[in-house]
C-alpha cells in the first residue's frame, strides 16, 4: 500500500526515516516498507480492503471507556515519540490518528482496558527533532489538539500543561502514567479519600488530582489557568 507524497523526493525519504525511527522506538505506526521516487509504501491498515478509520470518524458512544483507552494510548505514543525517538509529530490531531486492529501494529499495547482497540499515528511529514528550536511549541500544539478532541468525547482529560510536562519528563515511565490514567478513568475517589499506589509511586487525592513523584497533575474539566495558546505554522524542513 502506498501514499503519494506531492512535495518532493526528499520529503518522502524523510517521512520514511521518521516512521522507521518511530517504529523502532515503540510508537504504533504503519510499518514503512520502501520509498521509490515520490511514493512512500506502507503496510495497509484496515480490513477487507477498507482502510482503518481516522479517529475523527470512529463511532464510539460518548463517555465510553474505549475513549479513555484511546486517550491513554495517544499520550503514551506522543511520549515515546518524544523520549525514545526524539521526535515531535508537529501536526497531530484526530485526523491523522487511525483506529485499527492490534494485530496489525507491531507496537500495540500489551494491556487494553476495554476491547480490541488500538491507535496508529500517521502522516509524519511535519515531524521535527526534539531539539528543533520550535519543538516545544509544536509539542504543546499537538497536545492541545488531542486534549480538545478527547474532552469532546465526555471523558476526563488532563490539563494541557500537565500532559506537556509528563511527556517531557524523562524520570517517569510508561507504568506510572498507565496506572494514573487507568485508575482515574475507572472511578472517582470519595471526597475525603487519598491513597498511594505503591507499585507506581503515584498518589491519588479527592480533588481530581494525582501526583507523579511529588508533582501534581489535574484531571477532568479545568477552570484554572493554563499556558497560553500558541499560533504556529507548519514546521519547515
Short description:
This protein has 5 helices and 13 strands. With 237 residues, the protein is an alpha+beta fold.
Protein described:
The chain is an alpha+beta fold. The protein is 31% helix and 18% strand. It contains five helices and 13 strands. It has a four-stranded antiparallel β-sheet with strand order 10-11-12-13, with helices on one face. Strands 1-3-2 form a three-stranded antiparallel β-sheet, with helices on one face. The chain has a two-stranded antiparallel ribbon with strand order 4-5. Helix 2 packs antiparallel against helix 3 (135-151), helix 2 crosses helix 4 and helix 2 (65-83) runs antiparallel to helix 5. The protein is globular, with a radius of gyration of 18 Å. The two termini are 26 Å apart. The model is unreliable at 4-9, 186-210 and 219-234 (pLDDT under 50).
Sheet with most strands: strand arrangement: 10-11-12-13
* Strand content range: 15-25%
Spatial extent as radius of gyration: 18 Å
| Quaternary organization | single chain
Number of helices: 5
Q: Mind summarizing the main beta sheet?
A: 4 strands, antiparallel
3D shape: globular
Order of helices and strands: EHEEEEHEEEEHHHEEEE
Amino acid at each position: 500500500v502506498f501514499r503519494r507524497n506531492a512535495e518532493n523526493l526528499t520529503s518522502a525519504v524523510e517521512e520514511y526515516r521518521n516512521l522507521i525511527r518511530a517504529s523502532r522506538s515503540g510508537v504504533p505506526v504503519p510499518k514503512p516498507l520502501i520509498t521509490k521516487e515520490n511514493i512512500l509504501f506502507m503496510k495497509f491498515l484496515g480490513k477487507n480492503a477498507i482502510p482503518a478509520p481516522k479517529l475523527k470518524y470512529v463511532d464510539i458512544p460518548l463517555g465510553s471507556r474505549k475513549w479513555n483507552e484511546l486517550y491513554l494510548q495517544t499520550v503514551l505514543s506522543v511520549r515515546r515519540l518524544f523520549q525514545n525517538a526524539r521526535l515531535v509529530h508537529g501536526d497531530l490531531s484526530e485526523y491523522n490518528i487511525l483506529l485499527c486492529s492490534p494485530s496489525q501494529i507491531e507496537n500495540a499495547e500489551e494491556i487494553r482496558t476495554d476491547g480490541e482497540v488500538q491507535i496508529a499515528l500517521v502522516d509524519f511529514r511535519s515531524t521535527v527533532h526534539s531539539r528543533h528550536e520550535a519543538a516545544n511549541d509544536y509539542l504543546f500544539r499537538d497536545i492541545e489538539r488531542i486534549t480538545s478532541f478527547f474532552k469532546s468525547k465526555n471523558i476526563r482529560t488532563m490539563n494541557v500543561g500537565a500532559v506537556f510536562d509528563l511527556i517531557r519528563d524523562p524520570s517517569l515511565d510508561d507504568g506510572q502514567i498507565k496506572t494514573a490514567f487507568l485508575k482515574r478513568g475507572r472511578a472517582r475517589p470519595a471526597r475525603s479519600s487519598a491513597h498511594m499506589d505503591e507499585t507506581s509511586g503515584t498518589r491519588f487525592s479527592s480533588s481530581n488530582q494525582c501526583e507523579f513523584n511529588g508533582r501534581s497533575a489535574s484531571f477532568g474539566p479545568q477552570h484554572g489557568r493554563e499556558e497560553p495558546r500558541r499560533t504556529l505554522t507548519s514546521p519547515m524542513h
